[in-house]
Each structure stands twice: as C-alpha cells, then as structure tokens.
Amino acid sequence: MRLTVRLIALLVIIAAAYVVWAWRSPMQGVAAPAKSTFDVAQLRHGSELAAIGNCVQCHTAPQGKPYAGGRAVPTPFGIVWGPNITPDPDTGIGLYSKQAFLRAMRDGVDRQGRHLYPAFPYDHMVKASANDIEAVWAFMITREPVRQINQTTRLAFPLDQRILLAGWKAMFFNRQAFTPDPGHDAAWNRGAYLVEGLAHCGACHTPRNIFGAETKSAAYAGGQVEGWTAPALNSSSPAAVPWTTARIETYLRLGRDDLHGAAAGPMNEVTHALAGVVAADVAAIATYVADIAGNATPERAAVAAKAVASSRSGAAPVSASDPGSAVYAGACAQCHGDAARAPTNPAVNLALSSAVRAADETNFVNVVHGGIRQPDGLGGPYMPGFADILTPAQVRDLASHVRNTYAGKPDWTGVADAWRRQSAIK
Ligand code: HEC
Ligand code: HEC
Ligand code: HEC
C-alpha cells in the first residue's frame, strides 16, 4: 500500500517536472510595424528567403490567397494544417513580434507558447541566421493581411497533447546553428547553409523514422511526401544520367532538364518558388547538392551512356506479345517518342526519367494518373492526365512495357492497386 502511494507520488512529481520543463510562456502581442518603417533592401532580402523556404507551399490553400493558410500537410500521424501567416491580428501572425517569430522558427513554439508539430520544418529553419529570420519576419509582417480562420489540427490521442512535442524535440531536434566548413569554398557553404536550412530539401528527400524525425544517418537517401516519392539525391539516386551542378541548377530554375525531365508533384512547387530566386543562390544550392550526389562511378556512367544512346533511337515498336506497347503507342508516343519519332520537346524519352527507374511505382502512377500541370497561370511543361482514360489493367501493362524497355528493369508489383488508390482519392 505505502509502496503504491510512493510510486504514484513519484509519477506525479515526474509529470509535474516534465510539464514545468516543457512549458513555454506566451509572448506579448505587438501590433505590426508599418511597412514604411522597414528598409526596402531588408524586405527584398526577406522575399528572397521566403521563396527559398517556399513558405507559400504549406501556408496556402489550393486556389487560396498566398500565405493565408488552409493547406493540409499530410503526415503519417494525420493531417497538420498550415496556418495563416499573413499579418492579420486575429487569424494570422499580425501580433507576432520579431522575437516571437524567431522563437517559432527556431524553437517550434507559437506565440501562445504551444509546441508546433515538426510538419513545420523548424528543424531546418533553425539553421538560418537571426538576421535572415528577421528579414523573413519583416517580409511576412508587411504582406496584405488576410482574415481567414485556421483549420484545427486534430491528431489522435496522445499526439494531440502538444506538450509531448517537448520530448520529441529533446530526442530529435538538433538546434545547432549552421557552421561553415572551411574545407569548402564560399558557394558550397552558401549552398549548404540554404539546403540544410531554409530550403529544407531534406524534409522531403531524407527518410523519416517511426517518430517522424529525419534519419540523419541516411540523409538524402530519399523519402515520402504527400503520396509522392522524393528520390534519393545521394549516391543511390535513381537518375539515369548522374546529376551535375549545371543540370541541378537548370532543373531547379526551369523545373526541367533535357536529360532528366520535369519536376512534378510537390517538387514542381519547389521549382516554381526557386524560379524567382537570384541565380547565385540557386547555383550555390546546386553546388552543394551535386556534392551530395558525388562523382559518378564508372558503372553509373555506363548506365547513363546507354540511356542517352537509347533515348536517341526512339521507342520500341509495338509487339503483340507486349500489350503495354500498344497502350504506349496510342497514349504516350506522340510526346515521348516512338520508333519513328524523337520525343517532342519538352517531353523526354522515358529512358531518362527517374520516375521510370525508381524502386517503386509511386511517381510513375501519379504522373500518368494526374498528368503534369503548372500552378495557375504559370507556363511550363504540360502532360495530360489519364485518370479517366486508362483502366488499372492497361496501366499495369503500360508500366511493364515502359519499365522493361526503357529502364531495363523488372516489373513493379503494385501498379494496378496504386492506380485504383489514386482513382479513389478524388
Ligand atoms: C512543409 C510545410 C511548411 C513549410 C515549407 C513552412 N511551414 Fe510554417 N508551418 C507549417 C505547419 C504545418 C505549421 C503548423 C504546425 C502546427 O500546427 O503545429 C506551421 C506553422 C508556422 C508558424 C506558426 C504560425 C502560428 O499560427 O502561430 C509560422 C510563424 C510559420 N509556420 C512560418 C513559416 C515560414 C516563415 C516559412 C518559410 C520560411 C514556413 N513557415 C514554411 C508548415 C510549413
Ligand atoms: C501531350 C504530351 C504528353 C503525353 C501524351 C504524355 N506525356 Fe508524359 N510528359 C510530358 C511532358 C511535357 C513531361 C515533362 C517532361 C518530362 O519529364 O518528360 C512528361 C513527363 C512524364 C514522365 C516523367 C515524370 C517525372 O516526374 O519524372 C513520365 C513517367 C511520363 N511523362 C509518362 C507518360 C506516359 C506513360 C504517357 C502515356 C500514358 C505519357 N507520359 C503521355 C508530355 C506528355
Ligand atoms: C515538398 C517536398 C520536397 C522538397 C522541399 C524538395 N523536394 Fe525535390 N523532389 C520532391 C519530389 C516528390 C520529387 C519527385 C518529383 C518528380 O519525379 O517529378 C523531387 C525531385 C527532385 C529532384 C529530381 C530527382 C530525380 O532523380 O529525378 C531533384 C534534383 C530535387 N528534387 C532536388 C531538390 C532540392 C535541391 C531541394 C531543396 C532546394 C528539394 N528537392 C526540395 C520533393 C521535394
């Protein structure tokens, strides 16, 4: 009996100590300073950094007003809603002081003192300098305020207890500031600073553990995001032609590269945001990412040479023993090329597509199902979706044809099921 009482008392003390430790105090609300009080150069700098951080992606509803929130950010634990970060004092971040904003970006705690879910990649934002975060704050706080009430994030118990996130942070959140590596030049270091920090490339391209934290030992080995596979960017990259600084730069700025094809899905939004960023910063990002990719091994170079050569000779002819070849001829060849025709720009020969060479069918199915469309009013590569045109069995045959002929790889096993799942979503 007395032992039980003591145990309970001990647990209560531990719980109380945890709460005291995890507690973050609310911060005083401060009215947004007038735009005229900011330096124009600082605002421009903040605008650049917001584009590099692609804040608009998670903080804008489909067809919604920029930064006004309402975008579902899917996680394995449920949907976390991107909130309104326009300076509306009631529904947005209009009362955030510079300090409160800094705390949100670097500690993942909102102005009221609530711990934020790491669906907001503050584990990357924390690497940004105080100066840079201040510039982002200056930019955000001077946007047009939009009154739009936030969707409420409701994860299942116990994940809805935000106080537990303090424990998550203790285990997985590395608050260390970025330190330049003197062994590399200025462009590499600038790239590392941006990629590891605001640009948060690893948030999608690094696999996560069962607690939803990035597995640092497998950095850039590829991850899952919003129903897409973000391919490996390191030495296990599925790309037929190894990525180089110049090709990554082109891909990031134009959303497309001749020897790799276009950016689809969530990556399309990343490239649209980067399209407006100063060239030197995108070049720096490319320098660092090319270093992550490393130099191509002779084996990789041989695969690349073969893929490029086969991409020039067009597609395989239609064959009765390969039912997918007829589907390809009817639906895809006009753009991606066939035995008689080279691909019509901007489509590439599918021997060059990472989606075709990837270990899983996810991106292939997503692209064929939904096509490639650019956000409202923006130009760029277009491919129609085949959601209402092809049956699961046709897509299975098509995938088998494309995989075998263009990538020289065995069939994926889940194509028909993945197609049905996609069709069930809308
Ligand atoms: C990958 C998606 C994602 C990106 C990119 C992103 N955010 Fe967020 N952000 C979120 C989510 C989700 C939340 C809410 C988390 C929660 O509810 O716990 C959030 C919360 C916030 C908050 C707290 C808002 C509040 O209501 O108190 C601020 C401030 C913020 N983000 C600023 C930014 C800025 C600035 C950028 C760009 C540099 C950015 N975010 C980029 C997903 C993102
Ligand atoms: C109207 C032209 C057109 C048609 C028809 C078309 N595509 Fe595409 N497709 C494109 C363009 C443009 C792109 C973007 C550039 C690129 O990656 O080739 C693309 C991209 C792709 C990609 C690469 C996506 C990525 O993210 O790596 C795949 C895979 C693909 N298409 C498969 C197909 C298949 C299979 C068919 C037939 C069912 C098809 N396409 C029909 C134009 C087309
Ligand atoms: C929101 C998630 C997300 C973020 C953030 C993101 N990516 Fe991606 N990325 C993807 C997805 C998904 C794909 C696959 C798209 C496709 O096949 O068209 C991709 C594709 C790529 C590719 C093409 C790989 C290949 O072999 O085809 C490169 C290169 C790339 N990303 C680089 C970057 C860099 C550099 C950053 C940071 C500046 C970044 N990504 C940030 C999700 C993301």
Describe this structure in words.
The protein has 426 residues and is mainly alpha-helical. It has three domains: 156 residues; 108 residues, Cytochrome Bc1 Complex, Chain D, domain 2; 113 residues, Orthogonal Bundle (Cytochrome Bc1 Complex, Chain D, domain 2), CATH 1.10.760. Helix content is 45%, strand content 5%. The chain is built from 19 helices and six strands. The strands form three sheets. Strands 1-2 form a two-stranded antiparallel sheet. Strands 3-4 form a two-stranded antiparallel ribbon. Strand 3 and strand 4 form a beta hairpin. Helix 10 packs across helix 12. The radius of gyration is 24 Å and the shape is globular. Bound molecules: heme C (3 copies).
